[in-house]
């Protein structure tokens, strides 16, 4: 049996309970060594065989997975964050389907959740943005033209931009082309939730300079939007005057609620 497991964003205790339990039982682990915290491997059995996929091709990964699974071994493919976000798992699953082998996916905490937690921010604020756009700049991996950053930026929604730390000059230009003002709040979060995490608050216009000054060239998420600022309305859900399925609202409001405004 093969399990694709999300390792979480970095901190060893941010893997799920299910993911950790399977890791403890694994006979073979193939982990994405460039981004997965190697300390996670400390929970594996002594006789577990561990491969770092950083230097392997898709075919080499499959050449480990397929015979091990056929021999009845428990195989774990450990991906950073959540495997469904830039995890390149689809191509592995398709080849396993072709081999007639069964697998399951165990979700993980994506780094964009880790980054929000580190920044202590909420991506979805009333009146600011109720949408999160997860995207990347085009690099050697193509991005469909309709998803050009300038087009996405025109929504002024919260944006979490992966895999783009080396292209920040270009990213800023595209974001501004799309309508973000140069002074729109932005943040660079390097190695969110790792012990050596760093976070930098800046603006759309100063992304490249901020990264350069702080020598950040990879393993960072770029977050953009007014959710990083302070001008938002409180939620309706917890508003004393708001009636919903589980609570009757008070209108007019009791006087003590004035303090909450
Ligand atoms: N599946 C992963 C993303 C893999 S793509 C996830 O869900 O998080 C790799 C990119 O993710 C990196 O280039 C960087 O942009 C981002 N990334 C991964 N881990 C990170 C972390 N701990 N902090 C900040 N960015 C991270």
UniProtKB/TrEMBL annotation:
<dbReference type="Pfam" id="PF00590">
    <property type="entry name" value="TP_methylase"/>
</dbReference>
<feature type="domain" description="Tetrapyrrole methylase">
    <location>
        <begin position="1"/>
        <end position="207"/>
    </location>
</feature>
<dbReference type="GO" id="GO:0032259">
    <property type="term" value="P:methylation"/>
</dbReference>
<dbReference type="InterPro" id="IPR014777">
    <property type="entry name" value="4pyrrole_Mease_sub1"/>
</dbReference>
<comment type="pathway">
    <text>Cofactor biosynthesis; adenosylcobalamin biosynthesis.</text>
</comment>
<comment type="similarity">
    <text>Belongs to the precorrin methyltransferase family.</text>
</comment>
<keyword id="KW-0949">S-adenosyl-L-methionine</keyword>
<dbReference type="InterPro" id="IPR050161">
    <property type="entry name" value="Siro_Cobalamin_biosynth"/>
</dbReference>
<keyword id="KW-0489">Methyltransferase</keyword>
<dbReference type="InterPro" id="IPR035996">
    <property type="entry name" value="4pyrrol_Methylase_sf"/>
</dbReference>
<dbReference type="InterPro" id="IPR014776">
    <property type="entry name" value="4pyrrole_Mease_sub2"/>
</dbReference>
<dbReference type="GO" id="GO:0046026">
    <property type="term" value="F:precorrin-4 C11-methyltransferase activity"/>
</dbReference>
<keyword id="KW-0169">Cobalamin biosynthesis</keyword>
<dbReference type="InterPro" id="IPR000878">
    <property type="entry name" value="4pyrrol_Mease"/>
</dbReference>
<dbReference type="InterPro" id="IPR003043">
    <property type="entry name" value="Uropor_MeTrfase_CS"/>
</dbReference>
<dbReference type="InterPro" id="IPR006362">
    <property type="entry name" value="Cbl_synth_CobM/CibF"/>
</dbReference>
<protein>
    <submittedName>
        <fullName>Precorrin-4 C(11)-methyltransferase</fullName>
        <ecNumber>2.1.1.133</ecNumber>
    </submittedName>
</protein>
<dbReference type="GO" id="GO:0009236">
    <property type="term" value="P:cobalamin biosynthetic process"/>
</dbReference>
<keyword id="KW-0808">Transferase</keyword>
């Amino acid at each position: 049996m093969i399990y694709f497991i999300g390792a979480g964003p970095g901190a060893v205790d941010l893997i799920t309970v299910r993911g950790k339990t399977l890791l403890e039982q694994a006979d073979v682990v193939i982990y994405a060594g460039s981004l997965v915290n190697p300390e996670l491997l400390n929970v594996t059995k002594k006789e577990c065989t561990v491969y770092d996929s950083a230097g392997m091709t898709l075919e080499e990964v499959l050449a480990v997975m397929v015979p091990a699974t056929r021999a009845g071994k428990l195989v774990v493919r450990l991906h950073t964050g959540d495997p469904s976000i830039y995890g390149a798992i689809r191509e592995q699953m398709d080849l396993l389907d072709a081999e007639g082998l069964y697998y399951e996916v165990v979700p993980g905490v994506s780094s964009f959740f880790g980054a929000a937690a580190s920044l202590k921010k909420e991506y979805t604020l009333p009146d600011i943005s109720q949408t999160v756009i997860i995207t990347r700049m085009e690099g050697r991996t193509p991005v469909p033209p309709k998803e050009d950053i300038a087009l996405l930026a025109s929504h002024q929604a919260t944006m979490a931009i992966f895999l783009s730390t080396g292209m920040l000059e270009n990213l800023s230009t595209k974001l501004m082309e799309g309508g973000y003002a140069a002074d729109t709040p932005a943040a660079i979060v390097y190695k969110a939730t790792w012990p050596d995490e760093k976070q930098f608050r800046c603006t759309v216009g100063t992304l490249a300079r901020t990264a350069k000054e702080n020598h950040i060239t990879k393993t960072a998420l770029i977050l953009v939007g007014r959710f990083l600022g302070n001008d938002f309305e409180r939620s309706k859900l917890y508003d004393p005057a708001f009636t919903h399925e589980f609570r009757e609202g008070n209108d007019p409001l009791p006087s003590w609620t004035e303090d909450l405004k």
